């Protein structure tokens, strides 16, 4: 499918600090901004910045950023699921994954994650997509936040719901391996019944769940 992208932005003033939430941004925009040193949830900040630049080359990519002046302090990345994951097994060119969302440890407490997802969903083209996210407790920054698994899960669900994502059942072994793990998704208003059927088929590889 053609990946139409319409840029949106909003200005956010929180706790006497001014942020811009914007996207989908281009590769040139990513290259023109600095990258905050606290963005280390997945890899060292320099390597994560390089990964963000690489993602910006993918035709289906949608990168939403939060910045303070010219410094990226948070981001959300949407792209096709990893080829090694079950979600890529269906031939749906309108199924994309929230591959990562991260706020710098230096900028937590400003509500930036929710606003990243809100800006992402401002684009009308998102009504053509099934957007999924897979949440695994072992990826969560429990030590840095001081939250328990279930407290973090509650925060994560609130963030995802701000973008319209809801909990969906699945028999995926990794998700089923711990009750805190979950699949969340948002099905756009223009997604066809056939596409929803394919999504349901990949959610459950076994006909019956007891």
Automatic annotation (TrEMBL):
<dbReference type="GO" id="GO:0016746">
    <property type="term" value="F:acyltransferase activity"/>
</dbReference>
<protein>
    <submittedName>
        <fullName>Acetoin utilization protein AcuA</fullName>
        <ecNumber>2.3.1.-</ecNumber>
    </submittedName>
</protein>
<keyword id="KW-0012">Acyltransferase</keyword>
<dbReference type="InterPro" id="IPR000182">
    <property type="entry name" value="GNAT_dom"/>
</dbReference>
<feature type="domain" description="N-acetyltransferase">
    <location>
        <begin position="20"/>
        <end position="210"/>
    </location>
</feature>
<dbReference type="InterPro" id="IPR016181">
    <property type="entry name" value="Acyl_CoA_acyltransferase"/>
</dbReference>
<keyword id="KW-0808">Transferase</keyword>
<dbReference type="Pfam" id="PF00583">
    <property type="entry name" value="Acetyltransf_1"/>
</dbReference>
<dbReference type="InterPro" id="IPR024699">
    <property type="entry name" value="AcuA"/>
</dbReference>
């Amino acid at each position: 499918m053609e990946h139409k992208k319409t840029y949106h932005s909003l200005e956010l003033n929180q706790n006497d600090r001014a942020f811009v939430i914007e996207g989908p941004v281009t590769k040139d925009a990513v290259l023109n901004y600095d990258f905050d040193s606290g963005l280390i949830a997945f890899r060292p900040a320099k390597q994560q910045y390089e990964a963000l630049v690489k993602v910006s080359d993918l035709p289906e990519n949608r990168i939403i950023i939060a910045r303070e002046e010219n410094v990226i302090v948070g981001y959300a990345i949407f792209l096709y699921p990893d080829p090694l994951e079950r979600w890529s097994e269906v031939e749906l060119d309108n199924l994309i994954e929230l591959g990562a969302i991260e706020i710098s440890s230096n900028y937590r407490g400003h509500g930036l994650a929710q606003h990243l997802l809100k800006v992402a969903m401002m684009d009308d083209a998102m009504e053509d997509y099934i957007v999924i996210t897979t949440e695994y407790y072992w990826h969560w920054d429990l030590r840095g936040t001081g939250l328990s698994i279930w407290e973090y899960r509650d925060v994560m669900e609130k963030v995802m719901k701000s973008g319209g994502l809801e909990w969906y059942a699945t028999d995926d072994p990794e998700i089923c391996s711990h009750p805190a793990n979950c699949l969340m998704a948002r099905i756009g208003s223009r997604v066809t019944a056939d596409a929803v059927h394919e999504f349901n088929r990949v959610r459950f590889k076994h006909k019956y769940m007891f």
